[in-house]
Amino acid sequence: MAKPAQGWYRLDNAGMVYSAIQRDDYSAVYRFSVVMDAPVDPQRLQKAADRVMPRFPGLQVRLRRGVFWYYFDADPSFLPQVEPDIANPCQPIRFSSRDRLLRIFYYESRISIELFHALADGAGALVFLKTLTAEYLRQTGVEVPCTDGVLDPAQPPDPEEWEDAYPRYATSRARRSLKAGPAYNYTGTPEPFYTLNVIMGLIPVEKVRAAAKRYGVSITEFLAAGLIQALIVRQRSEGRRKERPVALVIPINLRPWFPSKTLRNFILTTRPFIDPELGDYTFEEIAAQVHHYMRLHINRQEMQAYITQNVSLQRSPLLRLIPRPLKNWGMATGFRMLGERPYSATFTNPGVFQIPAAMQEHILRTEMILGQSYSGRTNCAAISMGDTLAISFSGTMKEANLERDFFRWLVKEGVPVKILSNRKD
User: Fold this and answer.
1) Model pTM score
2) What CA–CA distance (Å, rounded) separates 393 from 384?
């Protein structure tokens, strides 16, 4: 959808939810980073940011409160100021202040971007990061072509890049919504506000691929099964009389099934789970169940039914007439019931960070970190480049039992792990 002449446009379906559930102590913020082969020059990074921002008008916005909905107000003058990095990433965004929805940080050889999820999903954010990094390298004299997701900052924005793609594919005769009971909620001792503990493991892609192949699953399915197994161990250690299902929420990029150039949100989620009440599971059985669940439910027809249901709620004449504060309350309540309770943790893997060959020799790896969850539990993200896969755990709990169990399991599977962390201990 092109940017309207009056300079504002509606949030997409996912953006409405993320805006409605925002609190002073919570925002759906996530981070992508690239680690370069040399220290970052902040002046050149600022010049790169200033040059590429006009190519991304959907990021040059302010979030405004309307009577009935939040909306984006275009602000072509917005150029994010490059900042030295902070110890606790993904800080909440306060709509009442001058906080912006996009941040750019640097630390030694690392370039990081943070986005409020109402702006874009991971696929859109990665296009921005690639384009920003390519322009930064050009500032240092490297010739980088505009391929593999790198956009040309000299070209005008493509209106299709800022389309709300959900309504275009809300054409299914069937409508489907998530109906799932509560899952195990892994919690612990909360840290002081705002402390986000991050533990990241760097692992060789070939080693984890070989381990996944032994079980006949993909890398994403292998890691998801390992996380479910670690959560089952945590729940069992609590000595519950009745154990709840252990379930993950895994975002699915819709673009491979529903062609779109959009850089905004265009995702759904899937929910692989294990019910420990049915008995003990070997890891091989967990991996098989995750594999078959995802292959069964990630298909065009089922996902289109979910899209149609979500968009139908947005189009409801009755819902449109409800004032925004009441909508926010209702959507926040619904998110607690349907967006948090049915899941034990979030796990996301955007896949391989593909960039032009000219960039590859200057970037050592890429990283992803999810901000704090709505309930304070631990989230997990993975992304790979070359032969390095970075998998991060981020949360606001003092305990690190889940992370320890997960990485010990990887080592037992023959996958070496190098640990990085911002934890003081």
Assistant:
1) 0.93
2) 15
Name the pairing type of β-strands 345-348 and 379-385: parallel
Q: What residues contact 36, with CB distance under 8 A and at least 6 apart?
A: 109, 110, 111, 362, 363, 364
Distance CA(114)–CA(371), nearest Å, equals 9
What's residue 333's pLDDT?
66
Which of the 8 DSSP states describes residue 338?
I
| Separation CA 57–CA 128 (nearest Å) | 11
> Are the CB atoms for 371 and 30 separated by under 8 Å?
yes
Encode pLDDT of 173-216 as tens digits: 888 777 788 999 988 899 888 899 999 999 999 999 999 999 99
Contacts of residue 416, Cβ cutoff 8 Å, sequence gap at least 6: 203, 204, 207
**Does residue 99 contact residue 323 with C-beta atoms inside 8 Å?**
no
Distance CA 351, CA 199 (A): 19
Residue 340 has what DSSP assignment?
Answer: I
Picking from 201, 197, 196, the residue whose alpha carbon sits closest to that of residue 419 is: 201
Residue 31, both tokens: 């981070």
Instruction: In whole angstroms, give the CA distance from residue 28 to residue 267.
Output: 15
* Helix locations, 188-323, DSSP H: 205-214, 219-237, 283-297, 300-315, 317-321
**Contact criterion met (CB below 8 Å) for 327 and 11:** no
Residues 6+ apart with CB under 8 A from 252: 267, 268, 269, 270, 298, 303
Instruction: Name, in order, each residue with C-beta under 8 angstroms of 89's C-beta and a sequence gap of 6 or more.
Output: 31, 105, 112, 114, 196, 198, 369, 371, 394, 422
Q: Let me know if 299 is exposed, middle or buried by CB neighbors in 10 A (0-12, 13-18, 19+).
A: exposed
Angle at 250 between CA 400 and CA 397, to 5 degrees: 20
User: How many CA atoms are closer than 13 Å to the CA of 207, on its beta-carbon side?
Assistant: 15
b/e code 113-137 from CB counts within 10 Å (16+ = b): bbbbbbbbbbbbbbbbbbbbbbbbb
How far apart (Å, rounded) are the C-alpha atoms in residues 373 and 119? 18
